[in-house]
Design a protein that fits this description.
α8 runs antiparallel to α9. The termini are far apart. This protein folds into 2 domains: about 180 residues, NAD(P)-binding Rossmann-like Domain (Rossmann fold, 3-Layer(aba) Sandwich), CATH 3.40.50.720; about 140 residues, N-(1-d-carboxylethyl)-l-norvaline Dehydrogenase, domain 2, CATH 1.10.1040. The protein has 15 helices and 10 strands. β3 and β4 form a beta hairpin. The radius of gyration is 20 Å and the shape is globular. The strands form 2 sheets. Strands 5-2-1-6-7-8-9-10 form an 8-stranded mixed beta sheet, with helices on both faces. Strands 3-4 form a two-stranded antiparallel sheet. The longest helix is centred in the middle third of the chain and has 24 residues. By secondary structure, it is of the alpha/beta class. The chain binds 1,4-dihydronicotinamide adenine dinucleotide and 1,3-dihydroxyacetonephosphate (13P). The site of 1,4-dihydronicotinamide adenine dinucleotide has 26 residues, from α1 and α4. GO terms for molecular function: glycerol-3-phosphate dehydrogenase (NAD+) activity; glycerol-3-phosphate dehydrogenase (NADP+) activity; NAD binding. It holds the Pfam family NAD_Gly3P_dh_C. InterPro entries: 6-PGluconate_DH-like_C_sf (IPR008927), 6PGD_dom2 (IPR013328), G3P_DH_NAD-dep (IPR006168), G3P_DH_NAD-dep_C (IPR006109), G3P_DH_NAD-dep_N (IPR011128), NAD(P)-bd_dom_sf (IPR036291).
């Protein structure tokens, strides 16, 4: 009988748990690691993750391990699903534990505020040169855990690694496509959260369907403009990691980022919204990263992201932000989408 693929999952949040469950169902030998050993004990005893993925049972075969060396022993593949601002601290704990050639699949969607690095850049800077693959696309954990159909994209410079990821994750209800644009897929996954906050604000203000459609469409243009300026391929933004995830996140009742925006549109402060949330809304951090000192100024026009930053961090009233967006000087629809293009 063929040996089972051994997979280490870093992260006990809703997405790490849903993917660990899927991988066990696909026949892998999966061990889940968390920065919080008491949470592992609870998950192991209850066979459930009540904190982050309530109402979903976890298979008996899923193993839990708090010690990095025990967790990483003999693994063929590692899946990293740690929120961006905690990622560096977590991966340094695996510096000696995880074999140098074990591929890492990153399912984290964000940018590090202090360094402006993408998750795979953080992993590479702490764990050195090794195969790295980005997994992104429209995929709320709550739906994947219920076995509802979802399609994602696995992006890696090395197609053989992307194929390994497809083989591990593909199931009757989970379909993974390949891409050779990890920068584009990773940036799309991070940036759509910022636009989702804007979409939530629009919902909270009751601006209607036309405004929401405009936000998604113009949001996609600015995501692509930023991505292309950072070495991503334009077409990636029209795929699952770009348009696909933008639609899901901006319209779903499951989206934390959209919910943050909606509460703010209804008049709550960011501090109050975050204080009431146990889960992460990466878009808040990504907005901070985009306009932080390490970003060295966003080189392309990102008016929606600018207004999200103004509302979240500069005390600008959401209605004022909408007025600012609507009253910008007239421009061509695809202005600056490709380097040097006027878009006219
Ligand atoms: N939830 C979802 O449906 C999806 C989430 N993602 C991405 O997956 C990543 C993880 O998010 P979720 O699983 O949703 O998290 P979550 O919001 O469900 O849970 C929070 C996570 O943060 C961890 N955490 C909190 N403080 C920490 C610390 N000091 N050190 C280390 N870890 C700490 C917790 O252990 C837990 O794993 C994010 O980048 C998110 O954007 C991507 C696709 C779908
Ligand atoms: O990335 C996601 C769905 O693909 C999750 O979005 P939220 O973090 O907004 O819930």
């Amino acid at each position: 009988m063929a040996e089972k693929t051994r997979i280490l999952v870093l992260g006990d949040g809703s997405w790490g748990t849903a993917l660990a469950r899927l991988l066990v169902q696909n026949g892998a030998d999966v061990v889940l690691w968390s920065a919080f050993p008491e949470r592992l004990r609870e998950m192991s005893e209850r066979r459930a993750n009540e904190a982050y993925l309530p109402g979903i049972s976890l298979p008996q075969a899923l193993r839990f391990e708090a010690d990095p060396f025990a967790a990483a022993r003999g693994v063929d593949l590692c899946l990293s699903v740690v929120p961006t601002q905690h990622l560096r601290k977590v991966v340094t704990r695996f510096e000696d534990a995880l074999g140098g050639n074990v591929p890492i699949v990153s399912a984290t969607k964000g940018l590090e505020i202090e360094t402006f690095q993408r998750p795979t850049e953080i992993i590479a800077s702490e764990l050195g040169d090794r195969p790295l693959c980005v997994l992104a696309g429209p995929s709320h954990a709550e739906e994947v855990a219920r076995g509802l159909p979802a399609s994602l994209v696995a992006a890696c410079d090395d197609t053989a690694v992307a194929e390994q990821v497809q083989a591990a994750f593909n199931s009757e209800t989970f379909r993974v496509y390949r891409s050779t644009d990890p920068i584009g897929v990773e940036l799309a996954g991070a940036l759509k959260n910022v636009i989702a906050i804007a979409a939530g604000i629009s919902d909270g203000l009751g601006l209607g369907d036309n405004a929401k459609a405009a936000l998604l469409t113009r949001g996609l243009v600015e995501m692509a403009r930023f991505g292309v300026s950072r070495g991503a391929r334009l077409e990636t933004f029209f795929g699952l990691a770009g348009m696909g995830d933008l639609i899901t996140t901006c319209t779903s009742r499951h989206s934390r980022n959209r919910a943050v925006g909606e509460h703010i549109g209804r008049g709550k402060t960011l501090q109050d919204v975050l204080a009431e949330m146990s889960m992460v809304a990466e878009g808040v951090w990504t907005t901070q990263a985009l306009f932080g000192p390490e970003a060295e100024g966003v080189a392309v026009s990102m008016p929606i992201a600018e207004q999200v930053h103004a509302v979240l961090f500069e005390g600008v009233d959401p209605e004022e932000a909408v007025r600012t967006l609507m009253q910008r000087s007239p421009t061509a629809e695809m202005e600056g989408l490709l380097p040097g293009s006027s878009g006219a």
